[in-house]
Amino acid sequence: MSSADIYREIILDYYRNPRNFGKIPNPDISQRDSNPLCGDELEMHLNIKDNKVSDVKFTGKGCAISQASASMLTELIMGKDFEYVKKLTKEDILDNLGLHDLGPARIKCALLSLKVLKSGLYSYLSDKLKDTASADKIKEEASGLY
Amino acid sequence: MQASVINIESVRNDFPILKRKVHKDKLLVYLDNAATTQKPIQVIEAISNYYLNYNSNIHRAVHELAEEATAAYETTRDKVAKFINAKNREEIVFVRGTTEAINLVAYAWGRQNVQKDDIIVTTEYEHHSNIVPWQLLVKEKGAKLEYIGVDDNGELILDQLDTYLATGKVKLVTFSQMSNVLGTITKSEEIIKKCHKYNVRVLVDGAQSVPHMKVDLQKLDCDFFAFSAHKMLGPTGVGILWARKELLQEMVPFNGGGDMIREVHKYETTWNDLPYKFEAGTPNIADVIGFAAAIDYLEKIGMDKVREHEVDITKYALEKLSQIKGIKIYGPMNTEKRGGVISFNLGDIHPHDLATIIDEDGVAIRSGHHCAQVLMERLDVSATSRASFYIYNTKEEVDVLIKSLNRAKELFKL
Question: Residue B34: is its pLDDT beyond 70?
Fold first, then answer.
């Protein structure tokens, strides 16, 4: 995938003007992770109400791909059913970003946001909902992302 | 090709990899030499010659292959000693790399000599390998780790060292002779003189300096010195720890096993002579032998010329880079004070995005925190881009880098 295809107007726009950037006070889900290879950092906050994502925000530092990916993911899940969010896949994220065929190093940048989201869901499912089976499944998905 | 003190054309011919294309048809412009350098054919052939013709374990067997292999392995030790002007060959210990050398000192010297409330002093521009081993040690001992700060010009604030030394609690001062991010050349001799007035031991990380300038250990007068072969044309997996003989004699072994012993009984063992006491197990014979060819290669060019060539190309690169609008260059601008490592940021382009874009033009640079997150915090950035030069790089390659950076600016609409 060439740089011209990666760094399209929309990616640069989300990088420079991230939507849903910020923090939620006392969120239901708060999850942070970083990519040790490049130092990208990401923290996501979510509130869940009536089985829907009632609010979601993120903060972070990193490359255009990781930050645009996080911002676009927050838009994708805002107001959505909890079940839908649980089922999100790697392909959904890459489709949403319009990024395919990223190299092995850069795909991690694109998927960091999904990894953070899934890790957050894991804690929420296991600690708050006591749904160990779903939690374990999500944990496995998160660790298998890259 | 523009003139240089080095015959670049003939040098480049010795590096087969420089002929390859990347991204289908782009000439490789390799500017990631601070991470690892390319290897000349002489080094590659020395390694394959060992495996093809005299592969054998060393020091023990009496057959001809073993004698040849032992002689070649030990020849490297002599060459290393001469290259850095060490007083004694038995002060040269082969390890896996700079990281292992520093860990060896932290373990084998540090655990015996550092006690509760003692202080170890490092600097804000160290590689993680000269921070983490000391964090482990001070945690174990209840000692303290302190940092010499970096000023806005990318140089160490040496007044802070005086303050630490005045406490009388400092056991070791450890620093890099050249920063792997800023390129700053440390005022090593000044630091070492200060420390020795207080009887404080000094470890110098020479991973970035030895490949690029003449280093004379007897003149430097430090107590421990560490560097890696792979950053100076040699193979990966070979590093050097040099330490004063009397210190090596007092130190406990790092690894126990074969070759490091004199006599082993059921409950007691006596140690082999230096340096073998610190070389347990079958070492990296092939790569140590290959390293000798790397040293020969650099000696043939001459380290003064290596440095002169790098000053020349760094000066050129700094001039050209400075002309790019929106660039921020870190570290000293005076080439007398720095090596051929240039860290920078371009507008709001994240270094990873920048490296991805210019890679398409065949330009290989490093992006990220360069294993120096403490320094990144000090510079208040999450990452930088870094171009680093060596003997085979040309000003034409710098031009390719500049052109490529301008293309990145266009893509990011800067």
Answer: yes
* Separation in Å, CA of A70 to nearest CA in chain B: 15
Helix, strand, or coil here: B191? helix
Interface test with A, best of B348, B352, B376 (most A CBs within 10 A): B352
Please judge whether B352 and A4 are an interchain contact, meaning their C-beta atoms are less than 8 angstroms apart: no
**Tens digits of per-residue pLDDT, B192-208?**
999 999 999 999 999 99
Topology, domain A3-118: Sufe protein. Chain: A (3.90.1010)
Final residue in a domain of this structure, among B264, B279, B299: B299
For residue A78, is pLDDT > 70? yes
Of A123, A130, A128, residue with least CA distance to A139: A123
Domain ranges of chain A: 3-118
Please tell me which residue of chain A has the smallest CA distance to B381: A61
Domain end among B267, B299, B331:
B299
pLDDT, greater one: A54 or A132: A54
Q: Identify which of A12, A39, A106 has the shortest CB distance to residue B368.
A: A39
Cα distance between residue B412 and residue B346, in whole Å: 10
Give tens-digit pLDDT for B268-303: 999 999 999 999 999 999 999 999 999 999 999 999
User: At CB < 8 A and 24+ separation, what contacts does B59-68 make?
Assistant: B59/B259, B59/B276, B60/B259
Q: Cβ contacts of residue B300 below 8 Å, gap of 6+?
A: none
User: Active-site residue numbers of B?
Assistant: 371
In this structure, the answer to whether residues B320 and B244 fall within a common structural domain is no
* Model pLDDT for residues B327-365, shown as the tens digit of each residue: 999 999 999 999 999 999 999 999 999 999 999 999 999
In this prediction, residue B1 carries a pLDDT of 65
Mean of the per-residue pLDDT values of chain B: 97
User: CB distance A63–B373 less than 8 Å?
Assistant: no
Query: In DSSP terms, which residues pair with B32 in a beta bridge?
Result: B388
Is A63 in contact with B350 (Cβ distance < 8 A)? yes
Tell me the pTM. 0.94
Owning domain of residue B351: 8-30+302-411
B198 with B339, same domain: the answer is no
For helices A90-97 and A104-123, angle between their N-to-C axes, nearest 10 degrees:
120
How far off is chain A from B348, nearest CA to CA, in Å?
A: 9
Q: Which chain A residue lies closest to B368 (C-alpha atoms)?
A: A38
Residues of A with Cβ-Cβ distance to B352 under 8 angstroms:
38, 40, 62-63, 65, 106, 109
CA distances from A100 to A89, A117, B24, B406 (A): 14, 20, 20, 25
ipTM value, please give it.
0.90
In chain B, the residue whose alpha carbon lies closest to the alpha carbon of A35 is: B368
Mean pLDDT score, B59-73: 94
Answer whether A64 touches B (CB < 8 Å). Answer: yes
